[in-house]
Amino acid sequence: MNGPGIHLTLAPELRLFAPPSRRVDRVPTATDGASSLGHVVESAGVPLTEVGRLLVDGREATVAYVPQGGESVEVFGVDRPQRVTGAPLRFLLDVHLGTLARRLRLLGVDAAYENEDIGDPALATRSAAERRVLLSRDRGLLRRREIFAGAYVYSDNPDDQLRDVLGRFAPELAPWTRCTACNGPLREADKDSVGDRLEHGTQRSYDVFAECTGCERVYWRGAHHSRLERIVLDALAEFGDGATV
Fold first, then answer.
1. Dihedral sign (CA 48, 49, 50, 55)
2. 3-state secondary structure of 123
3. Cα–Cα distance between 57 and 74 in angstroms, integer?
4. Cis link prior to 81 (omega < 30° from 0)?
């Protein structure tokens, strides 16, 4: 771009997307005089899924605005909690976020996930078709225009990823109600109805079971329950808003 120059300031939380030399206030930025502000921001490395308010010389602007020479543009991050309109809050996660998908499901959050890499076009198409918020650490994927909505996952640590998503979107939590394997709803099951799918030791040691209505996987409070319960209790303590175990 070699058109009118503007001054671009990214919010501190957005500067990780930009080259180190552009992580300061009022960075001189060339435009072509025709491209939208959204294009300029993306050219700076920031996915529009992460952009909240835009101010041009202190006035609110949209991503469609075409900046003029000499203007000062401020780019803010999304407000939290972020409200998603147009559909119930549901998520779609890319292949690299399997642990996060299972933890969201553990908390009763609708989180679709593919165990195999189906490719960016297919993920974007599914996000649009099912009106799901696409979660990813792939900036290129989040720039695809066809997605319904998206969000960058800022950490590669599963604990931090979960806190990031829960803090950003404030989904309703209903622990132990969703299958962590396939995302289907769980229902109570008696021992007799699921006995043929249990090891003998499990039949003898446990009496309370749940069954997935989708894949028919059986759940009980086994050896890993205390670790899962800690994840649930920590999430409820910070984000539960009245939900209970």
1. positive
2. helix
3. 8
4. yes
69-108 confidence digits (pLDDT tens): 999 999 999 999 999 999 999 999 999 999 999 999 999 9
Largest CA distance in the chain: 76
- Please name every residue paired with 220 in a beta bridge, in sequence order, or none if there are none: none
For residue 198, CA distances in Å to 24, 106, 169, 203, 219 come to 59, 21, 37, 6, 10
Letter for the amino acid at 89?
A: L
Phi, psi angles (nearest 5°) of residue 228: -65, -40
Beta bridge partners of 30: 5
List, as one string, the DSSP characters of 194-239.
HGGGS-HHHHHH---EEEETTT--EE---TTHHHHHHHHHHHHHHH
Quote the strand ranges of 36-175, DSSP E. 51-56, 59-61, 72-77, 91-93, 111-113, 133-136, 149-152
Rounded distance, CA 75 to CA 17, Å? 12
CB 131 within 8 A of CB 148: yes
pLDDT for residue 4: 80
Give the tokens for residue 34.
Answer: 């025709």
| φ/ψ (deg, to 5) at 71 | -75, 150
Taking the model in full, what pTM does it have?
0.90
